[in-house]
């Protein structure tokens, strides 16, 4: 059975007809020629297909396109501003967090999504007790230690083993937000660096 759907992809309204069994990943790559999300394992285990769906990180290979009528989908392809790279993309280049590069779009977009989640106070498996309060008023941002970053990025695999450089690239993107002028990262960094209710400083050590 085929169904016509509309998606907002990288801020462009797109319409397409899909078989009801088509994943969002296949719809993006094969029907709309948006190739930033990569097909890796096709089982939600590698994260190469990560996109932001309505602002949340998802493995697009696990989502049926037909269930996302009217949804806002953002890929690494729409992350930069024309020919200008997003700060997260720049720091991945600077810190050599690329290796073969196949997983890089998913890694980059997952990093952007996870910073937003941390700034919103969403805890991870390694978050210290009492730190995470979840999204909403009074939220306490996470302390982004390397352990936090690794845990939050654990859904994205790099078979070339660039993990050390990826963590360094993410930390560099946070620390250099002011000079890049990127509003999104600046807001995240300000939230993460804000004094905590317990009097401790910043979250980006």
Q: Tell me the radius of gyration.
A: 17 Å
Distance between the termini: 52 Å
Low-pLDDT windows of residues: 201-205
Number of helices: 7
> Structural class from helices and strands?
alpha+beta
Q: What amount of the residues lies in strands?
A: 5-15%
For the biggest sheet, the summary is: 5 strands, mixed
Shape: globular
- Topology as H/E string? EEHEEEHHHHHH
For the secondary structure, the number of strands is 5
Proportion of helical residues: 25-40%
Question: For the largest beta sheet, what order do the strands appear in spatially?
Answer: 2-1-5-3-4
Nearest-integer average pLDDT: 84
Describe this entry's structure for a reader.
The protein is built from seven helices and five strands, in the order ββαβββαααααα. With 205 residues, it is an alpha+beta fold. A hairpin with a 2-residue loop joins β3 and β4. α2 crosses α5 and α3 packs across α7. The longest helix has 16 residues. The protein is globular and about 50 Å long.
Blueprint (SSEs and pairs):
Layout: E1 2-9, E2 12-19, H1 24-31, E3 50-53, E4 56-59, E5 72-74, H2 87-94, H3 104-119, H4 146-152, H5 163-175, H6 177-180, H7 183-193
Parallel strand pairs: 1-5
Antiparallel strand pairs: 1-2, 3-4, 3-5
Question: What are the defining features of this structure?
Answer:
13% strand; single chain; globular; disordered C terminus; five-stranded mixed sheet; alpha+beta; 205 residues
Short summary of the structure?
With 205 residues, this protein is α+β, with helices and mostly antiparallel strands. It has 7 helices and 5 strands, in the order ββαβββαααααα. It has helices spanning 24-31, 87-94, 104-119, 146-152, 163-175, 177-180, 183-193, and strands spanning 2-9, 12-19, 50-53, 56-59, 72-74.
């Amino acid at each position: 059975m085929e169904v016509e759907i509309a998606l907002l992809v990288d801020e462009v309204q797109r319409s397409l007809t899909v078989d009801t069994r088509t994943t969002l990943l296949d719809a993006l790559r094969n029907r709309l020629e948006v190739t930033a999300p990569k097909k890796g394992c096709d089982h939600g285990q590698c994260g190469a297909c990560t996109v932001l769906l309505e602002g949340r990180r998802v493995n697009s290979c696990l989502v049926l396109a037909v269930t996302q009528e009217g949804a806002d989908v953002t890929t690494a392809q729409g992350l930069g501003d024309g020919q200008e790279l997003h700060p997260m993309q720049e720091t991945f280049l600077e810190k050599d967090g690329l290796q073969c590069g196949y997983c890089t779009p998913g890694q980059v977009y997952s990093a952007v999504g996870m910073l937003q989640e941390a700034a919103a106070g969403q805890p991870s498996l390694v978050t210290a007790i009492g730190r995470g309060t979840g999204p909403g008023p009074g939220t306490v941002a996470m302390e982004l230690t390397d352990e936090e970053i690794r845990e939050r990025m654990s859904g994205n695999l790099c078979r070339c083993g660039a993990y050390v450089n990826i963590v360094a690239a993410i930390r560099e993107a946070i620390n250099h937000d002011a000079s890049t002028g990127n509003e999104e990262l600046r807001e995240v960094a300000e939230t993460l660096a804000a004094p905590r209710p317990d009097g401790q400083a910043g979250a980006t050590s």
